[in-house]
């Protein structure tokens, strides 16, 4: 009798593993943004509020990057867009590390945001081009690879930062070049062939799509909350006397938990209701980030990181596949770009809101605001559950979802396009 062994990488095509390699390499070498607040305050001598504004400038560039990356992914292809993003990141990161005046820092920060995130919507669109049954696992693999790289980055960068931040910029630039080489050699083009019917325009479809708008706004608020882990957490830990190496070690716990627990989470959560998973995960992030604002010891910070990391895993398991299920086939790249722009909007708003609240109201007020935001996000995501389930089912069966209940009662959740 012949024994057939299960394949090591069942169901997922080589494309996913090539994309995972680019995520790992770019994230393992891309620690600049995680340490940018510390670099700006300690080496450039900027105030915390000004440093937060500079980090927000990266988010401004990132918003444009997500939209542009989605548009380019649908027009010139997923592969070419990713190549442009990684090579552009190399130039922008070197410029930011070389800038020594505030206007130059601002300009370079916007460029970093514009280039660094260009590959994300294109890569997400490539995964969204896969059959629906493969998407959750594929997005899970990318998230796992990203956080494996993140674990490497935070530990090594925390140690290097004690001797100055200059080396971090050069490592980031080299990693971007390496990621571009992987795309060039291993990532095929997945954009569906052009059809004879007229192309769909994004804006007219999007403004009628109440469910998509509501989901994006909800995730902008979520990422504004989540980004406190890179904006106010380092300032809070510095105020408690902890150095960059300690901050890097605490963040490394986040990556370690994700690397160890995310594959299990994909199996446990893959068949559950996406809206419920997203809602509970947002609540956990609010609780964890809020606790991190008021605890003082390393053990307390580690416990808060564990709580918000578990919530982050739940979001990551469902985020990409949920938005891919919402997107019309002809607008996948642009819809994923809009969805990814929620991250960049949070990266812009989070540092501004967090540093202002921390400086003017203190740590207890920041903690309360984070907890309340988590509760509000939980309620909002649960309210969207029926419309989200109906839309996803309609898209999988390729029927017009005009029958779906909307965010507003009595209205269709999605107008035909």
Can you offer a commentary on this structure?
- The chain is mainly α.
- It is built from 18 helices and no strands.
- Helix 10 (about 210-225) packs across helix 16.
- The longest helix has 30 residues, at about 130-160.
- It is globular.
- The termini are far apart.
- The model is unreliable at about 1-10 and about 405-415 (pLDDT under 50).
Distance between the termini: 54 Å
- In terms of DSSP E residues, the strand content is under 5%
Query: Which residues form runs of ≥5 with pLDDT under 50?
Result: 1-10, 405-417
Mind telling me the C-alpha Rg? 21 Å
From the structure above, extract its key features.
single chain, 417 residues, mainly alpha, 18 helices, 77% helix, 0% strand, globular, disordered N terminus
Brief account:
This protein has 417 residues and is mainly α. Helices cover 77% and strands 0% of the residues.
Task: Please give the structural blueprint.
Elements: H1 14-28, H2 36-43, H3 48-75, H4 78-98, H5 102-116, H6 119-128, H7 132-161, H8 166-186, H9 202-208, H10 210-226, H11 228-231, H12 233-239, H13 244-269, H14 274-292, H15 298-326, H16 332-361, H17 363-383, H18 385-396
Helix pairs in contact: 1-7, 1-8, 2-3, 3-4, 3-5, 3-6, 3-16, 4-5, 4-6, 4-8, 6-16, 7-13, 7-15, 10-16, 10-17, 13-15, 14-15, 14-17, 15-16, 16-17
């Amino acid at each position: 009798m012949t024994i057939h062994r299960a394949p090591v990488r069942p169901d997922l095509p080589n494309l996913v593993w090539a994309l995972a390699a680019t995520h790992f390499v770019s994230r393992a070498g891309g620690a600049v943004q995680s340490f940018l607040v510390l670099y700006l305050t300690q080496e450039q001598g900027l105030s915390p509020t000004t440093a937060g504004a500079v980090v927000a400038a990266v988010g401004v560039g990132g918003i444009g990057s997500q939209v542009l990356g989605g548009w380019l992914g649908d027009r010139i292809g997923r592969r070419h867009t990713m190549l442009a993003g990684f090579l552009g990141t190399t130039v922008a990161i070197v410029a930011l590390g070389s800038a020594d005046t505030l206007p130059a820092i601002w300009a370079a920060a916007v460029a970093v945001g514009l280039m660094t995130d260009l590959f994300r919507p294109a890569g997400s669109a490539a995964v969204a081009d896969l059959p629906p049954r493969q998407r959750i696992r594929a997005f899970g693999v990318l998230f796992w690879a990203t956080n494996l790289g993140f674990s490497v980055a935070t530990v090594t960068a925390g140690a290097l930062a004690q001797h100055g931040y200059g080396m971090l910029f050069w490592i980031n630039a080299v990693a971007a070049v390496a990621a571009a080489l992987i795309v060039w050699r291993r990532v095929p083009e997945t954009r569906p062939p052009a059809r004879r019917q007229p192309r769909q325009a994004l804006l007219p479809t999007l403004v009628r799509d109440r469910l998509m708008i509501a989901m994006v706004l909800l995730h902008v608020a979520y990422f504004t909350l989540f980004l406190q882990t890179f904006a106010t957490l380092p300032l809070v830990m510095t105020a408690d006397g902890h150095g960059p190496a300690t901050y890097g070690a605490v963040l490394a716990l986040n990556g370690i938990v994700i690397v160890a627990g995310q594959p299990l989470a994909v199996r446990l959560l893959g068949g559950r209701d996406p809206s419920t998973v997203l809602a509970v995960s947002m609540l956990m992030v609010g609780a964890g980030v809020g606790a991190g604002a008021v605890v003082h010891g390393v053990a307390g910070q580690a416990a808060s990181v564990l709580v918000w990391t578990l919530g982050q895993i739940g979001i990551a398991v469902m985020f990409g596949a949920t938005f891919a299920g919402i997107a019309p086939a002809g607008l996948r790249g642009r819809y994923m770009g809009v969805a990814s722009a929620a991250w960049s909007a949070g990266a812009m708003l989070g540092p501004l809101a967090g540093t202002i609240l921390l400086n003017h109201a203190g740590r207890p007020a920041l903690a309360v605001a984070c907890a309340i935001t988590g509760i509000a996000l939980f309620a909002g995501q649960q309210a969207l559950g029926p419309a989200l389930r109906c839309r996803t089912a309609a898209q999988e069966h390729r029927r017009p979802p005009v029958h779906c209940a909307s965010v507003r009662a009595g209205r269709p959740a999605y107008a035909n396009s």
